[in-house]
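Contributing new complexes? Match this layout with 4'-deoxy-4'-aminopyridoxal-5'-phosphate.
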Amino acid sequence: MTRAHNFSAGPAALPLSVLERAQRELLDYGGSGMSIMEQSHRGAVYDAVHNRAIANLRELLTIPDGYQVLFMQGGARGQFAMVPMNLLRRGTTAHYVDTGTWSAHALAEARRRGSAESIWSSADDGYQHVPTAVDVPSDSAYLHITSNNTVVGSQIHARLDGGDVPVVVDMSSDILSQPIDVTQYGVIYAGAQKNMGPSGVTLVVVRDDLLERSDDNLPETMHYGKVAAKNSMLNTPPTFAIYLVGLVLEHLKELGGLEAVAATNAHKAELIYRTIDSSAGFYTGCVQPAARSRMNVTFRSPSADLDKEFVSQAADAGLIGLKGHRSVGGLRASIYNAVPLESVRVLVEFLEEFKRTRG
Ligand code: PMP
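Output block (do not edit by hand):
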């Protein structure tokens, strides 16, 4: 079997050791004679898997008491709606930082639910830069940011302070890629399918005091407080996805936790950006250097035709998923936690070789 060098934006690469363990455990989980997929979510076997995943998330992300850890469904886009459904009371306004496609979708969804405004946007320069500070009205319902913009390949590196206004962050594409200070945030949410596991489960970390805002008439499965009160088992959770998230978390702990993971991620990103910057203009990065993402490296070759050729030749060489998002074109290498350093080295060699033959 040959494993591809997988640079997909999500669903994305998973650690090989996690897949192998899932394969070993698939038919008979822990001597139960059943797959974890076949276990009741009310049984002791699954309960242990569920609670271990939550405990490991708390440990890896240093989530303090006073925050709930929820597993929900509906993806990050579901959260675009659930955040305002839970936090945006009538008569209040939420404020959004617009750093790309996903932020814009989040704002549009909030506007379907109530009053929401953009307070900062880099749409005018094609989302090439990110803010280092924002001014939030003190009576804002919440400040929404997207820590890493998967499509344009930008990442907010500064701490955006909301003062007393709770900061809500869509961390779908950089969660678990580096240590974070959870106490900066009121809500953190992320789809699992980039850095955490397979698609089908969405992590929501929410500060206790915010649970009181939710209207009792919300659908129960979308009501943060009601889901929290049932430890994310109000209805049947996506058990197999949560089990796989649990395996990924154990793997991250074995690697030495998020400090170690962040150091490797910085190294991987540096190798590719250095190749782009030293290509004498053959490759150009799509965002300003200060806004560059360590998860999604976006760049272009001299023409759209060459980009196309790049993607097809790369695929022939076993490098998959390098086409830019359909809305922006160009090239994109997503280098989430589970993309091995070795794959990045192979990509760097390919970048150099392609430039040599086409430059
Ligand atoms: N936010 C960001 C930053 C994303 O990258 C994505 C998916 N690529 C989404 C939201 C949407 O996520 P989902 O498909 O889980 O709804």
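Reviewers usually confirm one structural detail per submission. For this one: The domain at 257-358 is CATH 3.90.1150.10 (Aspartate Aminotransferase, domain 1).
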